[in-house]
Amino acid sequence: MSGTPPGAGRASEIGPAEMRAGDGRLSLQACVVRHVAFENLGTFAPVLASAGFDLSVMDAGVDDVFEPILRSDLVVVLGGPISVYQQDQYPFLGDELRALGRRLREGRPTLGICLGAQLMAAALGARVYHGSAAEIGVASVELTEAGRSSCLAPLAGQPVLHWHGDTFDLPDGATRLASTAAYENQAFALGRNVLALQFHPEVDPHRFEQWLIGHVAELSSAKVDVVKLRASMKQAGSALHVAGVSMLGHWLELVNFE
């Protein structure tokens, strides 16, 4: 793919770090909470770096994420194959929820993807639960009226990666931005600073094979045709890269990092 994806250039030209230059800081601190190694920032990493963020990747269950979630200028909570309601089996989820609850109540910049979006919904008091069927594949989302006028506009008509079996109710005060036929709540915003996405606009198509290997048991259980899924990502990957980083760039322009 050639050229600079829309939104990425503007985010790098007038990054959040420049907006904070007056306080003497060289960069903003971004805490990235990762639940499984291959579900990483993907195509979002260079956009955030060029926008002036110092990225600190924390591995949930290994690193202590509580204080970094509270103190960082930006928090990005990524996906993973566990469920919000499995806190008995994975106690570290409780720390994430408590820290996110405090952060979100203050309206501080937070982005959640898949499990990250579910954790944000739960931290805001919404129900998170097992859905009617696994949604695994590459397909577009239907943007709501609010979604079409939001940072998600570059994703209109663009197939994205779906990979989840859980879902959530819309938190009080949040605005629904996107839906699919299977799941009504695919994305929500809470003011300018909080964005939660059930789907994966960040996936790096060049590293998608890691997902197919790492989630082999889930794919087998859900009877997903891996050959077709791989082909779908190959077809959509380049355009998704462009649309995804454009969406992130537009969101960064809206967020208040003061």
Would you give an account of this structure?
This protein has 258 residues and is of the alpha/beta class. It has one domain: 3-Layer(aba) Sandwich (Rossmann fold). 36% of the residues lie in helices and 22% in strands. The protein contains 10 helices and 10 strands. It has helices at residues 8-13, 16-19, 44-50, 66-71, 92-105, 115-123, 145-148, 208-214, 216-221, 226-254; strands spanning 28-34, 53-59, 74-77, 110-113, 128-139, 142-143, 160-168, 175-179, 187-190, 194-197. The strands form 2 sheets. It has an 8-stranded mixed beta sheet with strand order 2-1-3-4-10-9-8-6, with helices on both faces. A two-stranded antiparallel ribbon has the order 5-7. Strand 9 and strand 10 (194-197) form a beta hairpin. Helix 5 (92-105) crosses helix 6. The longest helix has 29 residues, at 226-254. The radius of gyration is 17 Å and the shape is globular. The model is unreliable at 1-14 and 17-25 (pLDDT under 50).
